[in-house]
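Sharing a chain and its predicted structure for anyone who wants a worked example. Both blocks are below, sequence first, tokens second.
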Amino acid sequence: MRVAYNKYTRRFDFSAPQTFIPVLLACMVCWVVSYLYSVGYPVYGEVSATPLWNAICQALPGKEFTYIIGMVLMAGGAFLLHRANYVLVLIREKTMLPFLFYILFISTNPDFFPLKSTSVGVFCLILAIYQLFTSYHDPEAREKAYSAALLIGIGSLLWIHLLWFLPLFWLGMYNFRSLTPRTFMASLLGVATVYWFLLGWCVWQRDFTPFTIPFHTLFKMHLLATDGIVLVDWISIIAIAFLTIVASLNIVMHDTEDSLRSRQFLAFLIAMSVWAFSLYFLYEQVSEEFLETACVPASILIAHFFTVTRRRIVFWSFYATVVFLIATLFIRLWNFL
């Protein structure tokens, strides 16, 4: 009986076409329905947003192109996440689940439709994570430290709060034994390069609001208010957070099954998910953006759990998660209408 059960669990792959394609099509339906009801459109800039993002909001074309841009950025971020997982072997088995989970998480939350400042920032964040991971045990990785900080600096031009991930990267460099005075200075220089050019632009334009407005917003914290919160708006967030916790505990309890290198990479992603969820509660005004960045580590951690865990309850939990998130989206859309 045990042999028959093992054969049942091993031959099934959640990223196989018979599962991957229907879930992907369901996510497409979510985007189409959101488009029909103009969820999140038009995209407005805010007073506290960076001037570059406000300029992009004003220059956005019609509704169709805005949604297409949002879908392309979502798919691009999912592809970068998949490639990073594949090249760095974050999950010891070949799988497309990080790609699938990222698209599922983005497509089932109406707060992400159709376009956010973090839609581009996620690109920079994933590429910065790749640069950080490839500097593993390399104390001379000054170029990679510079590149990672440069990418974070570029992303912060659209979303200034991305700079809060820089201390997390320093912690990662320390754990990966690549943090030295030179690599630390290289990371500072990477961010300084971006804002040195921005300063030059401000001097030329004689307008320093690109500096004053974003950095004033960066240090203006406001705890997430609990009054007026609708349970249905939180239930999908709670589900993703719960799955992330379960996946993290599974990694901690079975840490000997992965290589030391993979364990340290996964430990950084666990820390990143805790960091992003914590900032979600500290910045009410941009909580959705922090939630979108939390989808990056959560996608890999949850994909790791569903890939390496061979139990019947996990089999059904995967489909229950997909149906639950999609159903929650339509319930929220119903309440929105």
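Comments welcome. The two ends are 51 Å apart (CA to CA).
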